[in-house]
Amino acid sequence: MKLKPAVLGAAIAASIFILIFQPSFFSGSQEKIAAVCLLSISFWATGIIPQHITALCFFVVCLVFSLARPEVVFSGFASSAVWLIFGGLVIGSAITTTGLGRRLGKFIAQHLHGSYVKIIAGLVAGSVFFSFLMPSAMSRVVLLVPISLAVADFFGFQKGRRGRTGIVLAVILGSFLPAFAVLPANVPNMVLIGVSENLFHESLLYGPYLLLHFPVLGLLKGLLIVLLIVWLFPDRPVQVKNNKTRGIPPLSRDERLLTVTLFVLLLLWMSDFLHHVSPAWVALAGAVFLMFPGVAVFDSKRFSRDINWASIIFVAGILGMGSLISSSGTGQALAHRILGMLPLKPGHDFSNYLSLSVAATATGVATTLPAMPAVFTQFSETLSKAAGIPVTSILNIQVLGFSTVLFPYQAPPIVVGMQLAGEKFSHATRICLIMAGITVVVLFPLDFLWWKLLDMI
Q: Is this model's pTM higher than 0.90 or not?
């Protein structure tokens, strides 16, 4: 595609501009960090070279030119997300190789049998519902992606088919994006709760938060996901012959062990508010159990064959970049510049609302989604006075920002899901960009009307 070289060329030109003219809002080595991160993002987004190679280049440049300490650059490897994807690779491979995934996929597919639209809509609806049960988006993705692949196989969507990509995206996006409207269901939501309570003693409650955000950011965004997938990745399901079985064979020894393990993992993931153990460590413990001698549901041969180290390096690179942006203050410098340019005037409710929503979205691009609330919330009182809007409304406007994903690198669950499924990163980039544009043009104004109805602005 001609678009990819154009995007990369624009990113290179912007990076050179930053290095030569050194914008005044940057200090120290921030302009170098911004240029390196911009180039890395452009290579990840376009996929012109393998994504793990881009991550390795990012590590090399940061260390050779002393842009940050090694513990910052390699912080992604210490992140729970990397170990969650490792555990997810083991669990996902076990689900596939034992045949349990085919059972679950067949059960789900038989209830979705019909049109492609029905399949995608059913998977998105199920994923959104699952967001109310399991607080961790990463855990939802790790559990649902292998099952979605089995569903794709049931309908004859082999690797490379648009229908397979559509089914994977339905599960990933459906379990992640609408969940921003459910208070404990995503990490940025929880960061917003903590920062708002610490800085302004404002408590965001489950019920009012759900009422304010779910009708538009949950239901309508879920519908938008379905429409975009059907449009961008059209296909026609064909049930393959070997899926038409006369009976259900009994569970094998490995399937029984894996079923019990998944049940325990699901209970632990759903109750993390009680035991406070990270979903990543739960997944890692499950993976170790499945590999343990005597259990060996996932043996050493599969370990050598099925663990995709390239995906782990890729995710570690993205997370390391997020740490670099945060620790260097580069994200805060960009956010401060973005917020300083806002045309806020008391009494201009719609323009203030739209400006703040777009600025929150842009801040998420500069800082990645989990860090965005920590940065944006610091300016809430200043923005409240400038716009004549209550601080509570400013805090809630952030949700529109961090629930609008332009590039998958902002959201580790999307990255992890695409890597687990073995799908091209560019597919997620394409749908995220289009969805973000429609969200700003259509959903933001609709949300404003809903907020007006609730007297929130």
A: no
